[in-house]
């Protein structure tokens, strides 16, 4: 026996009793960013609720509000008769709410059993002898009994996911918040994870599941809510939500297209790059990930001199990881990257920047306490002379004239659109040959996105190649020479953008059979990048 009782029966025991979880008019702001906007939800005892939505919709923020990691800017959260918003995370957990994270972070030097024991002894409640459950019981439920004495650092991804769930269960949580617990799992591993979550749910525990893997949503939850820009826009059964036109709009970026009108004017009459231009960047058979999580699986991609290339895909597809691999922020585990035929796979980020690779990351990452001018000058090449930096600054302010009037203002006081201009402008200060823009339209109004894309047309006219990591399919396809679609780390389409303007074909490549019904295998293996027309 590895530990004394925990205090709550699990799936193999009598069902637990949970209380309704109620959110009323919950809003969360981070500075000028509105992450959750007047959300009201009710989760019934024993219910499994799914939450889906595109990047930046506010899903993970919502879980962290419920779990006590964030405090609402407005609104209330109650569990039964107890108001829990504003309580510390450990106090929220004592009331019966536990959060399982997407990327498990156990104590690596401790054994599996010791990790669960730490969670079990974080707090204890009195329980009757027949309600007592040991750490061994939790390990058995989570199929970790044979790995109890193994170091957590030795576990594969599936067992790490099991351990994350076991640690939450060991706290006695009656309401489980699951943040992408299936991320990175494939095939039999995914099936095993779904079966485990279902067995835990059968014990009577309530669940709120944020998940990009649609199979998890379809096989576990009875009700789904859809968030976009922090607002609840749709609710219903998984089948009803999958058929909702509004949901497809936000996932494919078509809502913004309808609000802003036709995007055909965004395509330049002439392009600086063509599919036959000499190779600037080649990504060959690259795999990458985080710990045991595989984010890119044998990905291949090519960008020619002066080309615009779009990378599309749903949440969790691997788009941002691809951007980070190209810029050097995430190492490639295998495969190689070639820059003008020179291998740069092992080069650190700063040396890639010197070669001409600039990265405007998702979330902007500006320095809020510095002025606009200071932020821009920090992006200039270190070796550039004062005169060259001044000349480049004038060029960037010509590209973004709105920033000239704001040059002396602190960047943290800018609007979202102005901050995005600043982030791109800072990257352009380095005089790159390739500019990577990761989700530049995220959270911005359609008119602001139009202005940014118009500016990108001017940028590409100067000879700079663009790699657009986007969820706004219509706008990015309208300016692209070539497009790639990723699904769970694999390329499901590589070619001209025009076929992806057919929504039926785009949905097939985007979700690869997981969205809105039956689960289909990847017939191409996801590795060739060649569309099958399926």
Structure, described:
By secondary structure, the chain is α/β, with parallel strands linked by helices. The chain has a domain at 21-243: Rossmann fold. The chain is 32% helix and 23% strand. It has helices at residues 59-66, 89-94, 112-120, 135-141, 157-170, 187-201, 214-220, 238-242, 245-252, 254-260, 319-327, 349-355, 372-378, 386-399, 401-404, 416-428, 446-461, 473-478, 503-511; strands at residues 21-30, 33-43, 48-52, 74-79, 82-83, 97-100, 175-179, 206-210, 223-228, 231-236, 279-290, 293-304, 308-312, 334-339, 342-343, 357-360, 434-438, 465-469, 482-487, 490-495. The radius of gyration is 24 Å and the shape is globular. Mean pLDDT is 82; it is low at 1-14, 125-132, 255-273 and 516-534.
Q: What features would you highlight for this structure?
A:
single chain, 534 residues, alpha/beta, Rossmann fold, six-stranded mixed sheet, 20 strands, 32% helix, 23% strand, disordered N terminus, disordered C terminus
Sum this structure up briefly.
The chain has a domain at 21-243: Rossmann fold (3-Layer(aba) Sandwich), CATH 3.40.50.300. Helix content is 32%, strand content 23%. The chain is built from 19 helices and 20 strands.
